[in-house]
Amino acid sequence: MSKRDFYEVLGVSEDASADEIKKAYRKLARKYHPDVNKEDDAEEKFKEVKEAYDTLSDSQKKAHYDQFGHADPNQGFGGGAGDFGGSGFGDIFDMFFGGGGRRDPNAPRQGADLQYTMTLEFKEAVFGKEEEIEIPREESCQTCSGSGAKPGTSPETCGRCGGSGQLNVEQNTPFGRVVNRRICDRCEGSGQTIKDKCNTCGGDGRVEKRKKVKVRVPAGIDHGQQMRQAGQGEAGVNGGPPGDLYIVINVKPHEFFERDGDHVRCEMPLTFTQAALGDEIEVPALSGKVKIKVPAGTQTGKQFRLKGKGAPNVHGRGTGDQLITVRVITPKKLSDKQKSLLKEFADESGETVDEHSDSFFDKVKRAFRGD
Ligand SMILES: [Zn+2]
Ligand SMILES: [Zn+2]
Q1: CB neighbours of 200 closer than 8 A, spacing ≥ 6?
Q2: Element (H, E) at 124
Q3: pLDDT the model gives residue 351
Q4: Which residues pair with 323 in a beta bridge?
Q5: pTM (2 d.p.)
């Protein structure tokens, strides 16, 4: 693929000033930044613009380019401008995600994502709710529209660095003269200075606000799940889009119910006469109560399933069941009369038990023998 002329890419003439080149670049970078522009070829165009600017904004690379064009792959300082597998991509990365010394302070950047932990009661998670939450976040200052300058005034291009935010420092070393770049100390890398700072934000262009966000928690949400609220994070910088808000759900444990996906589990105590003789018992359900028939001879640990009495699926795919496990309680304090009745009961049954339990006791006996 033949490369387009760098001046053509930026839409400037060959005798354009450094300022004109920079302006053209900023405009195009904003237009094609992949965070802003979702078109398929935006990223390619963005890289092309960045590459052109990298060369034309550097006086030595520019002089070299003006003389040799794209012909010499080893132009200037290590790594050709077309080398995107290596340093080229790193530059783009640095520029938008912090780090590296060469990032453009005025490029659009997406605002930071925020995280908020929302604590719900068990039934709130099951049935869903609407809640207004307050989140502290940085926003663009409304007094100065984010410029940081007092209304009526505007930031000026930094006189020290000419707006690049960086200074070239020449040093004589035993190996010859070396040019180092460092952040401009007057504008701290922003490329702009503000003479009259905005009183509201003190020149930052951003203020911390507690923002109220209405959140609809869907029925059936569960502990540890996360909800994304697009665009509710911190404000973008230099016209970049805002970040997102992530709400992490924390569900308080319930003393009776327990979630198992969309199913809701619980345990019900049974007296051993209820278990032996059978009974109809009332069981708490998520809404109200339900009656279940416990057949005679019910063993401890038996599970009863109530279809559709669980939690709704958070994605709207049906409703879970309520799963009730019964626990037969052995009485601890017995009156003398109860004791004698139970002895009578044991005599009457000759300590023989029904078939089901018999095999269970047999298993225990075999285990004792070591079979
Ligand atoms: Zn302000
Ligand atoms: Zn400066």
Answers
A1: 141, 142, 143, 144, 207
A2: helix 122-127
A3: 67
A4: 265, 305
A5: 0.54
Instruction: List, for residues 314-351, the tens digit of each pLDDT value.
Output: 999 999 999 999 999 998 899 999 999 988 888 887 76
- The CA 193 to ligand 1 mean position distance, Å, reads 14
Count of CB atoms situated within 10 Å of the CB of 244: 18
Looking at the CA of 138, name the nearest ligand: 1
Write the burial class of residue 61 (CB in 10 Å: 0-12 exposed, 13-18 middle, 19+ buried): middle
Give the ligand whose atoms come closest to the C-alpha of residue 190: 2
Residue 150: nearest ligand to its CA? Answer: 1
Ligand 2 mean position, distance from CA 18 (Å): 15
Q: Number of C-alpha atoms within 13 angstroms, CB side, residue 321?
A: 8
> From the CA of 351, how far away is ligand 2's center (Å)?
96
pLDDT at 371: 67
Tell me which ligand sits closest to the C-alpha of residue 193. Answer: 2
The pLDDT of residue 267 is above 90: yes
Would you say 224 and 281 are in contact if contact means Cβ atoms under 8 Å apart? Answer: no
Residues around the ion ligand 2 (C-beta < 5 A): 158, 160-161, 184, 186-187
Q: Cβ(245)–Cβ(229) under 8 Å?
A: yes
- Name the one residue in this structure whose structure tokens are 């693929």: 1
Q: Please report which helix (H) or strand (E) contains residue 132, including its range.
A: strand 129-140
Nearest to 244 by CA among 236, 252, 232: 232
Rg (CA), the chain: 36
Distance 105 CA to ligand 2 centre (A): 11
CA distance 28 to 210: 34
**CA 308 – CA 100 distance, rounded (Å):** 57
132 CA to middle of ligand 1, Å? 27
Q: What share of the chain is helix, strand, coil (3-state, %, to 5)?
A: 25, 30, 45
**185 C-alpha to center of ligand 1: Å?**
22
The pLDDT tens digits for 221-254 are 999 999 999 998 888 877 788 889 999 999 999 9
Tell me how far the alpha carbon of residue 3 lies from the centroid of ligand 1, in angstroms: 43
Joined together, the tokens standing for residue 65 give 């380019």
The ligand placed nearest to the CA atom of residue 199 is 1
